[in-house]
Write a structure and sequence with these properties.
The chain is an alpha+beta fold. Helices cover 63% and strands 8% of the residues. The protein has a four-stranded antiparallel beta sheet.
């Protein structure tokens, strides 16, 4: 049979079955040997649209397990007896009060500022415990799934054979897979305007959804109580450590002061200085009077006057006493002086008074922390108990099927467009 030139130039696109097997696509061709875009589109529609839609309809209508959602709403509240710690007036002697150890206004004011800073030690703000973000983070953490599944209870609820195959959890799933499954079925959202928390639990039974939500709330309450207990213990331990440190500092400064007093034999620095100065002035006065008597006696009777030798001996003795008293007062004799000892005593006395003030601040902080610890409590205020759903709202059969149809239609349209472009290039 002869073939025309036009027929010879027409591409032969039919794939026929050979002896070794192969595909036969002749049904998709026109009689002229070319592929039909309409038949290709129909075949793709059967594979990409009809088949997925039928399978999705069978699954969502007959196989899919109903999902029930239990909801709960609550807030976190903390109660604590909070009173401002104002020790500035007591320490600095303001408002007519007597200052601790005679502290001046500057030192007392500094301790007052320290007392103000100590307010933070006892937890002056309870915003942290009132913040529901702590509970929200705990609800979505692996810790809660580990506690709920301690005896395998949570795993049994999600891997029950009453749940369809594609929805249930593998009974041999790892902890990580269980936690990922939990995050897909549980949400804990915080309403920033009202500072409340909403817990939603999705399960395949109304009773199980409510039970999971109830147990999760119980664990959250235990977590809040544990945080409160730890905060109470940490606050008391820190305050007690401050008291112990202040006591050691006060005892150390007092011991140094006592040792210096025993060494110098000075009990009252001010009185000792006054006594030393008075003694020196008295000796100088007696020396002046003795020299005056000596000069008068020499004018009247000369150098051989009776009693002149006694006056010279008295003046010599007074000079020695004046030198000794002056050295004791200023330290010129043996390096030890009343003035230096008094300065050291005053310095140690000031340090002792400061340590006493610090001890008073630490003691007040500890007493306040102990009172607040006795009255501190944090709890979950649940104003919507976990509900037991009556009907299932998931899966939404028609919405799910419509989604499959839309997705399949997009895939079909893409493939048909690709086929049309390919046929156009071949032609």
């Amino acid at each position: 049979m002869r073939t025309s030139l036009a027929e010879a130039q027409t591409p032969y696109l039919s794939v026929r079955k050979s002896g070794r097997g192969g595909l036969r696509l002749a049904a998709l061709r026109h009689d002229t040997g070319r592929f039909s875009l309409g038949k290709i589109g129909l075949a793709l529609a059967l594979v990409l649209v009809a088949l997925p839609v039928v399978l999705a309809t069978i699954y969502y209508v007959f196989l899919a397990s109903p999902v029930f959602t239990s909801e709960s709403r609550f807030v976190v509240r903390s109660t604590v007896e909070a009173s401002p710690l104002d020790l500035g007036g007591e320490l600095s002697g303001k408002d007519g009060g007597k200052s601790i150890g005679g502290l001046s206004g500057g030192l007392g004011g500094g301790l007052g500022n320290l007392a103000g800073a100590a307010d933070s030690l006892t937890g002056g703000s309870q915003a942290g415990m009132q913040d529901p973000f702590v509970v929200s983070s705990y609800m979505m953490s692996p810790e809660i799934t580990n506690l709920l599944d301690r005896d395998g209870w949570l795993r049994r609820q999600f891997s029950s054979m009453t749940i369809d195959y594609w929805s249930r959890l593998d009974e041999h799933a790892s902890r990580e897979e269980l936690f990922a499954y939990w995050r897909r079925h549980v949400t804990a959202a915080v309403d920033r305007r009202s500072n409340t928390l909403q817990l939603r639990v999705r399960a395949y039974s109304p009773e199980i959804a409510q039970e999971i939500a109830t147990r999760a709330l119980g664990l959250a309450e235990r977590m809040i109580a544990e945080i409160t207990r730890r905060q109470r213990e940490d606050t008391l331990a820190l305050a007690k450590a401050e008291v112990v440190g202040a006591e050691l500092r006060y005892e150390k400064s007092s011991l140094k002061l006592q040792q210096l007093r025993r060494t110098t034999r000075i009990v009252e620095p001010a009185q000792e200085t006054k006594a030393a100065a008075t003694t020196l002035l008295r000796l100088i006065y007696e020396r002046i009077r003795a020299r005056t008597e000596l000069m008068t006696l020499e004018r009247l009777a000369g150098n051989n006057a009776p009693g002149r030798a006694e006056l010279l001996a008295t003046i010599s003795g007074l000079d020695a006493q004046i030198k000794e008293a002056n050295g004791r007062l200023t330290g010129d004799s043996d390096g030890k002086s009343v003035l230096s000892a008094v300065a050291s005593l005053e310095e140690l006395e000031l340090e002792r008074r400061f340590a006493q003030g610090m001890l008073s601040v630490a003691t007040n902080v500890f007493d306040r922390a102990r009172r607040e610890a006795e009255h501190r409590s944090s709890f979950l205020l649940v104003y919507l108990e976990p509900t037991q759903p009556v009907e299932s709202r998931e899966p939404n059969v028609w919405a799910s099927i419509a989604f499959v149809v839309a997705l399949a239609g997009i895939a079909w349209l893409f493939c048909v467009t690709a086929a049309a472009i390919t046929l156009d290039q071949i032609d």
